[in-house]
Design a protein that fits this description.
Rossmann fold; globular; four-stranded antiparallel β-sheet; 10 strands; 30% helix; 210 residues
């Protein structure tokens, strides 16, 4: 290696020749993508181009075996059978559609399915501290005890992003985001992208071409 030359980091996630068919309709046709740590990648395309199908494969919603092609994470085969397996491996999907439990609090939603425990019981104090830290990082001025359903939709999705960040902290730090961001969300989301890049996360953003 010559002076000043640097090696590019090894890809965190690689998709090779992915093809997915629904009842005779080919949603993906030989799609490959390689994503490196610290990258924020946008996938653009018209409606029906297969953008969401791609990330649903990466996030385990379309199980291994229901498509052709291969996935790798950190150089090893990655073949989640469902979204839970993918999330445990560190891949979190933040869908465009709001996916929260409106009857639960902000704290409960952020820590859903990843509650800190003590002696076999949920550690309420640790859970609240975890949620408070997540909100503070995103500069969201929200009472963590607020019922989720009382928040506007834009704020609910910002809380979902924090839940996605919590998920990637359990695995190799990949976040797959199928998102549509309104003007009210832009400032916070822009800072989130910068923070994710600095932390070495991987993000995919799906944007529909108009």
């Amino acid at each position: 290696m010559t002076s000043g030359e640097t090696f590019a980091p090894r890809p965190v996630m690689v998709a090779d020749a992915l093809t997915k068919t629904f009842t005779g309709v080919k949603a993906l046709n030989d799609v490959s993508i390689s994503i490196r740590a610290g990258e924020v990648t946008a996938i653009l395309g018209q409606n029906g181009a297969g953008k969401s199908t791609l990330i649903q494969i990466l996030a385990g919603i379309h199980s291994s075996g229901s498509y052709s092609g291969q996935l790798q994470m950190e150089g090893a085969p990655f073949a989640p059978l469902n979204a839970e397996q993918a999330e445990h491996a560190g891949v979190a999907l933040v869908p465009q559609e709001i996916n929260v439990v409106p009857e639960m609090t902000v704290t409960e939603n952020i820590c859903l399915n990843a509650e800190p425990t003590r002696w076999g019981l949920i550690d309420v104090g640790a859970r609240k501290a975890k949620a408070f830290a997540a909100l503070r990082e995103f500069e969201l001025d929200i009472d963590a005890d607020t019922q989720m359903g009382s928040l506007d939709l834009a704020t609910q999705q910002l809380v979902e992003f924090r839940r996605g960040d919590r998920a990637v902290q359990t695995g190799p730090d990949d976040e797959v985001a199928d998102v549509s961001i309104g003007l009210e969300q832009h400032r916070c989301r822009k800072q989130h992208v910068v923070d994710a890049d600095d932390a070495g996360f991987v993000e995919l953003h799906i944007v529909q071409k108009r």
